[in-house]
Amino acid sequence: MNPLRIRFALTLCVLIASIAAACAPSLPPTSTPPSLPPEVSPTVAPTQMPITLVDAAGQTVELKGPPSRVVLVGRAPYMGLHLLYLFPSAWDKLVGLEQKGPTPDDFLPYVDPNWSRKSILAAGPNAEQIAALKPDLVLMKGFLVDGLSKTLAEVKIPSLYLALETPEQFYQDVTNMGKVLGEPQRAEQIVSYYQERLERIKQRTADISEDQKPRVLLLEYTDRGGSLAVKVPARSWMQTIEVQLAGGHPLWLEQATQTDGWTVTNLEQVALWNPDKIFLVITYTMNARTIVARLKEDPLWSKLKAVQNNELYAFPADLYGWDNADPRWILGVNWLATRMYPERFSDIDMNAEIYQLFGLFGMDKAAVDEHIMPVVQMDVH
Amino acid sequence: MTPIRLTWLLMALVVVTLAISFFMGRYPTPYFTSPAALVNDLMARSLVLNLRVPRILTAFLLGIVLSASGTVFQLVFRNPLVDSGFLGVSPGAAFGASVAIVLLGGRSATIQLCAAGFAMLGLLGSAFLARQVRFGDWTLRLVLAGIAVSALYTSATGVLKYVADPVRQLPDITFWMLGGLWAITWRDLLQILPVVIPSLIVIYLMRWRLNLLSMRDETAFSLGATPGRERFVLLLAATASAAALVSKCGQVGWVGLIIPHIARRLLGSDARHVVPGSMLLGSLFVLWCDDVARTVLTGEIPLGILTSFVGAAFFLTMLTHRRVGVQR
Fold first, then answer.
1. Between chains, do B106 and A143 touch, taking CB under 8 Å as contact?
2. When you count CB atoms within 10 A of the terminal residue's CB, does the N or C end of chain B come out lower?
3. CB atoms < 10 A from the CB of A335, how many?
4. CB–CB of B167 and A224 under 8 A?
């Protein structure tokens, strides 16, 4: 073979191997998960056929019956996955999911004994790759997935959008999942769990006028691209809503955009706001304790009222942050309320709240103690 | 082998590749769909007829259009390092898609509309700017205007990427920019045909004029051509067809750059042979890359990544090969 061809072939092989290595999903972590407690055993109610509902994208979805094989794809798949796992009957029905990060999920191996059997699709699967798992329902979330939804419709595979951005959307998604899975009572139970907690906060903060509310700043603290940045969340995002639901006054609303995500701000603006309390959402690649300690010693940050009053907190997280539109968001709201109004919420035991929330996933106290409590970061300030 | 025989051989290769591609995929088993499955498995038949066939035909067209327009650009601008992205088309499409994702909700129809609109605006902006420049011939002015418009689009896209949500929007922008045919249906294919087919006919019929238009204005004019008008018609056809496809498929790089080079090496410098040869080679290249993109893994490999990798590998090989050199 001539040298030109050999060289081309070698270069090509190296490049294709690199692509394959980069794109191929890794296997999900294996663990010894706890057994399923009896209180979350599937209790599927008889479902009216066909099932018709309106999903988060406003499309009418019609299913011939409850699905038996569900695939989940799209952006931030953990949010939809964790919502799905609030329904015990869904555990066996989930046959595959798209993997976005280094692992399919960091949490569910501790919940589902059969988690390792789920098929993992590499990022950005097309309709044919999804069809290979023979699903009768595809759950999806994200901007570009409507292209996928369109191609799935061509081959008669129904798809259902999840929004999971605000509490209202969360309730709608839970209700839709209840209808689809034939577990409407379970959906009501989940929605009640969330609404009861929000109602408690609402009642106890009802007499506080807007100007009496603590002036709060919630910032994302990241080192993306090698440089540090502080950002405020969009007006309609769960982080902003959590602060409002907990009875705080979000100072950044004037600067925040409606939908464009995190908006970069700077210390000059932070100093101008000079908030009563600062909550930092610290990216998982950074150590929250180190960051908070460093900021307290920083000559500029230390002049802020919140830092001087020891009101600079890292936003809590376990395996996932409590600020996201994951089912954990209710823990975030509760925790914020206890930090903003400690005297009014002194009876709230956050550890008990954690056990109760993870109980919804079927985790008993021992499992939570083993897998969740050791990684909870709740009092970093 | 004569250029005509080689063209026939390439045509045969394209037909074989098309036929094989229809049987390559992930369903019902990875890599290959047996003819028996097409008969017995309703889902397999539906996948092939409704998704695989339009996708493969779009890949075929994408290769033809990108390489044909790359050939036109390289000959008209007398520059072997340009392609259809040169007059702000690809940067315009990228900007349009980013606008749709960040500001307009990111539905696929909005993305396609914005991408096509801003891509064409890139061409029109370049042409308008070129008219305002007071020095140099038409080609030089268009080159300079194209560089300026592309730079404007690129910086504006940078701003959108900067403000985009890193979790929700940035991955979508990145994924779109890497290109892919995963969302193509018959409807998408039919939507681009009214632009693509007439454009390709224009390029094919005017291919022999490219030999004249690749000369200096004075020479081309003395040989009976009207360089300004003819170049504009060819560039419009090349850009419009590329914009239509890029709006559906995202940015698929290096096809328009590297394929015309290969065509010239195989078929000589006569545009009458290079244009059809380039079209056939381009379709082969994109078909092969798309077969890999949709078949090898359980998720799509973005097509633009594959075409760029293979294109860059070929380019490096060409650069370092002893027999390739510059004559002074």
1. yes
2. C
3. 25
4. no
Phi-psi region of B4 (alpha: psi -120 to 50; beta: other; left: phi over 0): alpha
Segment A28-76, tens digit of pLDDT:
333 333 333 334 444 555 556 788 888 888 888 888 888 999 999 987 7
Residue B119 and residue B242: Cα distance in Å, rounded? 9
- Decide: B99 and B118 in contact? Cβ < 8 Å: yes
Instruction: Specify the pairing of strand A249-250 against strand A277-282.
Output: unpaired
Alpha-carbon distances, residue B184 vs B53, B66, B88, B292 (angstroms): 10, 17, 24, 17
- CA-wise closest residue to B73 among B283, B251, B213, B263: B213
Backbone angles phi and psi of A222, in degrees to 5: -130, 165
Residue B289 Cα, gap to closest chain A Cα (Å): 11
B55-92 burial, b at 16+ Cβ within 10 Å, e below that, comes to bbbbbbbbbbbbbbbbbbbbbbbeeeebbbbbbbbbbb
Identify from A144, A162, A231 which residue to disrupt to test chain B contact, counting B C-beta atoms within 10 A and taking the largest count: A144
B101 — contact with chain A (CB < 8 Å)?
yes
pLDDT digits (tens, 9 = 90+) for B163-183: 777 666 777 788 778 888 888
Work out the mean pLDDT of chain B and round it to a whole number.
Answer: 86
Per-residue HEC secondary structure of B174-232 comes to HHHHCCCCCCCCHHHHHHHHHHHHHHHHHHHHCHHHHHHHCCCHHHHHHCCCCHHHHHH
Chain B, residues 163-182, CB within 8 A of chain A, namely 163-169, 171-172, 175-176, 180, 182
Q: Which residues pair with A229 in a beta bridge?
A: A222
Q: Which 3 state secondary structure label does DSSP give A315?
A: coil
Mapped onto helix, strand or coil, the DSSP state of residue B126 is helix
DSSP string, A154-185: HTT--EEE---SSHHHHHHHHHHHHHHHT-HH
Chain B residues touching residue A12 (CB < 8 angstroms): 309-310, 313
At A24, phi and psi to the nearest 5?
A: -70, 135
What is the number of CB-based contacts under 8 A between chain A and chain B?
A: 151
Alpha helices in A57-144 (DSSP H): 77-84, 90-93, 127-131
Which residue in A132, A144, A234 is closest to B175 by CB distance?
A: A144
Is the pLDDT at A176 greater than 90, yes or no?
Answer: yes
Buried-state track B178-193, b at ≥16 Cβ within 10 A, e below 16: bbbbbbbbbebbebbe
Residue B265 contacts residue B321 (beta carbons within 8 Å): no
Q: Of the given ranges (A9-18, A63-72, B99-108, B252-261), which has the lowest mean pLDDT?
A: A9-18
pLDDT of residue A26: 39
Q: Which residue has the higher pLDDT, A3 or B328?
A: A3
What pLDDT does residue A144 have? 56
Query: Does A146 sit within 8 Å of B105, measured CB to CB?
Result: no
Cβ within 8 Å, pair B171-A24: no
Residue A3 vs residue A126, higher pLDDT: A126
